[in-house]
Amino acid sequence: MRNKNYLYADQPAKCWQEGFPLGNGFMGVMLYGGYELDLLDLSEATFWSGAKSEANNQPSAASAWREMRRLVECEDYETASQVAEQFIGRRHNYGSNLPVGQLRIGYNYSNKKIESYKRSLDLNTALAVSEYSVEGKAIKTEAFLSYPKQCFCMRIFNPDKEKMAITLEFRADNKPFQVNAYNNTLYFDVQAREKIHSDGKSGTTLQGYCKVILEEGTCREEAGQLIIDTHSDLILCVAMCTDFNGRDPKEALGVCKLNTFSEYEAIKQEHIKDFSKYMDRVELTLDTEGDMNDKTLSEYLHYLEKTGKNNKLTELLFQYGRYLLLSSSREQSILPTHLQGIWNDSVACQIEWTCDMHLDINTQMNYWLSEPGNLAECHHPLFRWMEQCVIPSGRESAQKSYGLSGWSADLVSNAWGFTAPYWSNTISPCPTSGIWMASDYMEHYRYTQDYTFLKEHAYPVISEAIDFFEEYVFYNKEGKLSCGPSISPENSFMKGDKEFFFSNGCTYELVMIRELFRQYEEIVNILEAHDDLNRLDQQRRDRIKQLEKELLPYRILEDGTLAEWNHNYTSRDKQHRHTSHLLGVFPYSQITPKRNPDLAKAVEYSLEKRLEPSDNWEDTGWARALVLLYYCRLHQPEKAYRHLYSLQSKLLNPNLMVMHPPTRGAGSFAPVYELDGNTGCSMAIIEMLMQSHNGQIHLLPCLPKEWKRGHIKGIKARGNIEVAMKWDKGELISADFIGESKKNISIVYKGIEIQLNLEAGRMKTVKASDFLVLPIH
Questions:
Q1: Euclidean distance between CA atoms 342 and 344, whole angstroms
Q2: Highest taxon of the source (predicted)?
């Protein structure tokens, strides 16, 4: 039996959404696997239009913001909206990540018969293979994108010495580019230019090459193309580099010294070792029906449609989310993942919302999986970007747009760390987006227990965010500690017959500020335990703790739902895709069924109202994944499974990349791929099987009846604890725990809590019988 983590197809991709993605955190390639014309769509993380601007915050913004707050307190939303024109940010040359271009490999088989076609992508090794026969003679290609060598490699095997006449060319439609061909190599220069998100004159410049290595045969240059004639194998090697932040794009020319077939094999083995060491950390097996291995993606989707379940598809989707994150964000990646990870479907960059770093859920959801999915290294590019780009820019935005200390970041950001308010008063202000991202610092510490990271990175970032939000909160006219004005991303409300967007005391913003205050308290307590606390920190902690207690509480409305705003005006779109007021359930644990049953029930009612009627719900990949995550935390397994099924049956592209279809609130000329749909789905699968928050590890907290038997291995719980589990007939058999240090942990199964003492590096096992409650006689 083959490796179970394979994607299979029995025909070449006809479009981007059918291709197989490869990535190394710097470059992305979408492989079509064609046998007449093979296409390689190229992308690069720093290939951005636009430029850094020092004038994104208006000079009048801070005074306008203070006036907006005063007017909103008086419920004069109309005048406040007018004043907001002096507050909103200026986009200037904000830019977008763009596709680099396309390598086109043309095969001339002179109308020969092509048979036995198949292609595959091994998720554990990131090796893509296509195979077919030409008049009975075998042809095979294999491709990978090396992180250690920073290059894409493809080998075309021709064991039966079939004559191949291959044409190799590069195209970059709608962008300025030049191609030269000499010394068996295509050299291409491309400029990231577009006029939707920038002035059409600014952006990075990329240089790249595609080198051809032959065993035998000829390679000649003709009109900017390479014409290859051979009866043997050949290798293609691609490398790219931009001038982003002062880099020399000519670095691409020296990236990989691949000149021989033996060097290719060495690079391939190095790549497989590098990639698989991360993917092999985690295993998931679910009870499957019949022989579901070695099936094509279309067969998996057909089986799902026919039966209403496909556990094999769930296994693949789980590992696929890990694969896509690892391919998009490596330890030394220059930038974190954008909306589409490391790839570019040429849709997001052509519509209003931009292929960028959205900070009102998308970038966050991209990275939720990194820690429990045992890919903590993938988090590092996010932290570097925050500290090198976002926070320095955020200091300027805090001072100029809000007149406050510390740092802030609003709704969206780009390669240069844009932090100013969004350039429309419909989704601005929103200064809590930055501290939502800063939550990742605490999550990284909670999972890794890296005290040096906490002290040198998490503490300064969160402490400086406290500088802003300690000044930002205010006592409203009722004497309650409130905040704002701000939006509830990206919803609006009706006052009479008029639509408004921002108000004071939005539930979303209160969730974020409450979480920030708690994170600061947690950090200071840890520093104190290590004798690293000064008197000012201690006094500030006590002050922040008191402010947290005084924050406006959650409210339950008369209809039983959780209030989205600190007023009772109705939502303009009652089935909006964003549900930011529910984030206290997930990713945070401010609301749990056990601790806050009334609030948890209000969240359930809110979800029911949002989702019904189902045909009016703004159904997108990330939004569906978030609803699934809410139900996981609410311990509603069958509802969670229903939403997993809906995502699988309605929102998967043919290559299993999750889509964001056009909706009434987020229009587009075509469905858009978004990484967060895949990573959010994988995160939800972990949460169905294991949760770790509020000092407890919950085993099988949301196990649906469809997953009767299975095992998972290698996932991480907070506290730097590796977890493995087996279950059968819907019941736990055993669970294994390995911690990096000696500690006592609390484990919960079916509502029963037990304590377990861990020794550093030693596995401890619990069984279902350990959770039995003996009757009292």
A1: 7
A2: Bacteria
CATH class (in words) of the domain with range 6-48+99-276: mainly beta
Q: Which two tokens stand for residue 487?
A: 């939006």
| pTM for the full predicted model | 0.97
How would you write 237-255 as a 3-class SS string?
EEEEEECHHHCCHHHHHHC
Name residues whose C-beta falls within 8 Å of residue 624's C-beta, 6 or more positions apart in sequence. 643, 646, 647, 651, 677
Q: Where are the domains of the chain?
A: 6-48+99-276, 59-90+359-365+379-574, 281-328+618-777
The span from the CA of 466 to the CA of 432, in Å, is 11
User: Looking at this protein, which amino acid is placed at residue 95?
Assistant: G
For residue 485, count other CB atoms closer than 10 A to its CB. 26
570-571 and 498-500 as β-strands: parallel, antiparallel, unpaired? unpaired
Amino acid at 31: L
**Which neighbouring-strand residues pair with 357?**
413
Residues in the chain: 777
* Alpha-carbon Rg for the chain in angstroms: 27
- Classify domain 59-90+359-365+379-574 by CATH number: 1.50.10.10
Peptide bond preceding 263 in cis form (omega within 30 of 0): no
CA distances from 382 to 4, 65, 584 (A): 31, 29, 23
Average pLDDT, consecutive stretches of 10 residues, N- to C-terminus, the chain (777 residues): 78 98 98 96 98 96 98 97 98 97 93 94 98 95 97 96 94 94 95 97 97 94 95 96 93 78 95 98 88 84 89 96 98 98 97 96 98 98 98 98 98 98 97 98 98 97 98 96 97 97 98 98 96 88 97 97 97 96 98 97 97 94 98 98 96 97 93 97 98 97 96 98 98 97 96 96 96 60
